[in-house]
Each structure stands twice: as C-alpha cells, then as structure tokens.
Write a structure and sequence with these properties.
Elements: E1 2-18, E2 21-35, E3 38-44, H1 54-62, H2 69-75, H3 80-97, H4 101-105, E4 117-119, H5 124-133, E5 139-143, H6 149-159, E6 164-168, H7 175-187, E7 190-194, E8 214-216, H8 226-229, E9 235-238, H9 240-243, H10 246-258, E10 262-265, H11 272-281, E11 287-288, E12 306-307, E13 310-311
Length: about 325
C-alpha cells in the first residue's frame, strides 16, 4: 500500500471572515491510497484552533505504513490527518469491491439534505446585503461572537425574513452574554446556537437556562466528548476533520443519538471531496451545514450537486 499526500489551495468566491480571522482561499491536504491497482482518495482541512498545520498533518500522514481502517483508528488520534486517510481507505475499499461506501456502511435510501449557507462576519449593512442576496436559501448560518452581534442579527433577519437561521458564536461569548442574547435570538426566530462559550469554559452552561438549543462544536470531537457534553448541550456538531474520519463519525452519530443529543453535521471550508463522506453522516440529521463548496470560486471535478433539494450524495466519479 502506498499513501501519498499533497497540499492544494482553492480560491474562495469572496473573503470569508469569522471572529478568529479572515481567509481568501481554502488550504487542504489531499491523500491518495494506492494498492492492488486501485486508488482511493480523501481530503482534510488542518485547523489551527486544534494545533494543526499543513506541515504537521502532512508529517502524521507520511509516518504511516500499510494499514486498514480499523488499524488506522489506533495509529492516529482524532483529527484532520486521520480523516483524510480514513476517507481515502473507504473510497479505496468501495472501488476494490465494486460497490459504494454507503453500501459498505449499511446506509440505505441516500438523498439530498437541505444545507445551511454561511454568511461571513461583516458590518451589519454588508451582512444585510448578503442575506438579501441569499434570501432564497431555506437555511442561513450567521457567524457571530463579537460585541456587536445584535445589530448584525437584526440586519440579517431584515435581509432574509423568510429564511430559517442558525448562529455560530465560535466560542466568542460568556455565559452572561448568552443569557442576555438568548431571548432576542428566540424573538428573531433563531433555531440553534453553536458553541457560545469557549470549550474550556463551557461548564458555565451547566444549569443555565437554554431557551433555544445549544450545539457543541469545539467541545465535540469524537465519542469520548459525549460524557462531558451532558447537561451543557442539546446537539452535537459532527465534523469529519474533528472525528478523524467517516469511521468514527458514524459511530459518534449513533452514540450521540443514544445519549439523547440532536445531530448537526458540519464542515470546515473545503471542497466537494471533503463534503462527500459527510453527506452520508448527514442523512436525516436535524441540521446539515455542508456548504464548503458553495463558498469556493473553484472546486473539484465531478463536484457535489447543490439545488433546491439541498446537497446531494456524491457521484462515483468524485468519491465513494
């Protein structure tokens, strides 16, 4: 078995800003697994919030020898490196056996899922314009986490009065700020708030009134996260770059459901190759946020299909 990795960059359609900073391109790592004349591939997005860089993740992948998906779970921790290799191994196995990853995973009746579309953090005026431009979309996601969040949220609601809204504070609030804002979020029809508090300080959510559902993002990585989430969160945001691939993501989803959490499936800013495995996890999820390709100016060949029905599962030419 030969495992290779290469860094690639894809231009964004516009500057994308969250409370931690801005970017103009998606920097990803593409992994290829070659064996028995068959090649599978996968993609990951190293994330600085978790101490990952393109170089550090590349070094993790280059240190691997021949292994299968189960051996990979022990060889690497949850994170971007394991994600790309795991998804490449799923793709390789499906191709070698002449079937699909969905069939291998026991997932039936694949279909499109309505996905959120993320509005970049900007001035209220600019965000209202963004919202108006995307008011035809059924679900909008707003990046918040600053002292001036309410004017932005009010502006988005004016721009897109009929769209459903979820918000992501990216760890930017305190318990007091959340408590102050929550009634206004409910008034404006917000359905979910992601990670309002820093993961290291989320014990403050224990016993706190939650008038709208709170979703763990930075506090939810894999199944080992679930015990600490109890009593703080209502939803788990499953991202393959956090779980370390499709293998753990599917197990995390089932464990989260069994523990009483609602399911959201999210993504980093990557290409259709990164979203493709996540569309399997997203089947039937309460919230899907796989809009990475919609934020790009350029994407992979055989890119995912997005239409009024949502994001569709991948074609074999892409992955799986």
């Amino acid at each position: 078995m030969k495992i290779t990795v290469q860094a690639e960059s894809f231009k964004l359609a516009q500057v994308f800003t969250i409370s931690r900073g801005s970017r103009t391109q998606a920097d990803v790592l593409t992994v290829f697994v070659e064996d028995q004349g068959v090649t599978g591939w996968g993609e990951c997005v190293p994330y600085a919030r978790y101490g990952e860089t393109l170089d550090s993740v590349t070094a993790q992948i280059n240190g691997l020898g021949a292994l299968d998906r189960q051996e990979l779970q022990d060889a690497l921790p949850a994170g971007a490196a394991r994600n790309a290799v795991d998804c490449a191994l799923w793709d390789w196995e499906a191709k070698r056996k002449g079937t699909t990853v969905a069939a291998l995973a026991g997932i039936r009746d694949l279909g499109p899922e309505i996905t959120a579309y993320t509005l970049s953090l900007d001035t209220p005026e600019a965000m209202e314009a963004q919202a108006a431009k995307n008011a035809f979309r059924p679900l909008l996601k707003i990046k918040l986490g600053t002292p001036d969040d309410m004017p932005r949220l009010e502006a988005v609601r004016r721009g897109a009065p009929a769209s459903r809204i979820i918000v992501d504070a990216n760890e930017g609030w305190t318990a007091e700020v959340y408590s102050d804002l929550a009634p206004h979020l409910v008034r404006l029809g917000v359905e979910l708030v992601e990670q309002p508090l820093p993961a290291s300080e989320d014990d403050a959510l224990l016993g706190l009134a939650r008038p709208l559902p709170v979703c763990a993002d930075e506090s939810c990585h894999d199944r080992t996260s679930l015990a600490a989430m109890a009593g703080k969160y209502d939803f788990a945001n499953i991202k393959l770059d956090k779980t370390g691939g499709l293998t753990e993501a599917l197990q995390l989803r089932q464990a989260a459901v069994d523990a009483g959490f609602g399911i959201m499936v999210g993504c980093m800013v990557g290409t259709s190759l990164a979203m493709a495995p996540a569309t399997l996890v997203a089947q039937g999820a309460a919230f899907t946020d796989l809009d990475g390709p919609l934020l790009l100016a350029e994407d992979r060949d055989a890119a995912l299909k997005f239409d009024d029905a949502g994001v569709h599962p991948p074609r074999p030419e892409l992955w799986g």
